[in-house]
Amino acid sequence: MNHSDLPIPSNGASTPQSVSGVIERVIAEVPAPRVERSDEPGTAADAVARSAARNAAMLSGSLALPPGPLGMLTVLPDLYLIWKIQRQMVADIFALHGRTAELTATHMLYCLFRHMASHVLRDVAVRAGERAIVRQLSSTALTNVLGTLGVTLTQRVVGTTASRWIPLAGAAAVGAYAYWDTLQVAKTARRVLVSASDPAFSAPDSASSSSVAG
Questions:
Q1: What is the distance between the alpha carbons of residues 3 and 81, in angstroms, rounded to a whole number?
Q2: Which of 3, 49, 138, 164 might form a disulfide with 186, Cβ 3.0–4.6 angstroms?
């Protein structure tokens, strides 16, 4: 996919408004899952998470290979494509648990960015025992969250842009971060699916978490 084909600016301008716009486009559509409900959703979700993390790492690392100004042009397209991979992963994890009907744009926003901007999304979910219940946001509230999130994530974009000036080593670092970041999204999605009344939706224990993190 060429950068010119992406519905986002690829001129290297990473502002809070442009980042918010990319986020809004990503969560505007909840993709159809590519998997069916599983009898062992935890194990299947581990596999989905690791596969998505590998794809994100390879894509992000490849886009970061061009050094200097050329590499800077890939920052927003990189984020857009990585978040699309993560968006599909979340949809698949929900489907493995038989919960596709529950997945909304607000769920997607929470799953994708909770680990990076907990202070921004702290009011999006409430705790009910072991489960995080994501509340649906009004259009006004969603706009406000997107604006604040754009400001917060622009700091990440600035750091990512700096790595574009370091050939190979910078690409490796960006790829490693994309791998870790994708696994954090998977963990958040699984926490949202936790239900004390159904063992199939139980949160991953320390051993399972380690396998996802690896």
A1: 10
A2: 49
